[in-house]
Amino acid sequence: MLSRLKSLMFGAPFDAGTYTAPMSAGAPVTEIATFASGCFWGTQHIFLKHFPPTPAPGKGIVRTTVGYTGGNPLVKNPDYKSVCSGATDHAEAVRIEFDPQVIGYAELVEFFYRSHDPTTLNRQGADTGTQYRSAVFTNSEEQMEIAQRVTKEVQAKHFTPKKRTIRTEIVPAGQWWDAEAYHQLYLFKNPGGYQCATHRLWW
C-alpha cells in the first residue's frame, strides 16, 4: 500500500535500464558513433526516442552516453562549468554504441543531420559557443568516408536548394570524457526540462 501511495504521489521510479539494451551471451559486436549537435540533453533524447534499445531487439542503438570531446588535449577531466565557459574548446557530444547488423553508420549520420540545424556555426537555437558546434567525430577511416559521403548527399538534397551550407566539422575522434551523472538521460529523468528547439526532425 505504501509503495502504491509513493507511486501515485511521486510517479514511477526512473529506470535507466529502459534506455540500454540488455546484454546476453550472444551479444552483438558493436560500434561507436560520436556526434555533437548542440546541447547534449536534446541530442541524446532524440536519438533514443527514434532508436529505442528496448523492448528487445530494439532499433540498433545499444546504449548512449553524453560527454565532452574535441577539446584542448592538455585539458583533462573537463567538467560542465569549464566546457560551458568555452575555455576548453570541448563540444557537448553523445557517444552511441550501436549494432551494425541492425542499423548502419550511414543511417545514424543521416539522422544526425535530420535532427538539428547543421548550417549554424557554433550555435543551435539560442545556445551559442563552441561547445554547441555541429560535429561528427569519426572512430575509423571507414566512418570518415561514410560521414563525408552522407554529408555531400544531404547537402545536395536538403540544403543546396535552400541556398544554405552545412557547417558541420568532420574530424577523427579524440579523447572522450563522460559528463556528470546528472546529465545522463537528463530529458528522460526531467521531461519538462530545457530542450533546444532545433532538436526535431527537419525532414
Automatic annotation (TrEMBL):
Its EC number is 1.8.4.11. Keywords: Oxidoreductase. InterPro entries: Met_Sox_Rdtase_MsrA_dom, Met_Sox_Rdtase_MsrA_sf. Residues 33-196 form the Peptide methionine sulphoxide reductase MsrA domain. The keyword Oxidoreductase applies. It is an enzyme of class 1 (oxidoreductase). NCBIfam families: msrA. Belongs to the MsrA Met sulfoxide reductase family. This is peptide-methionine (S)-S-oxide reductase. It comes from Mycena maculata.
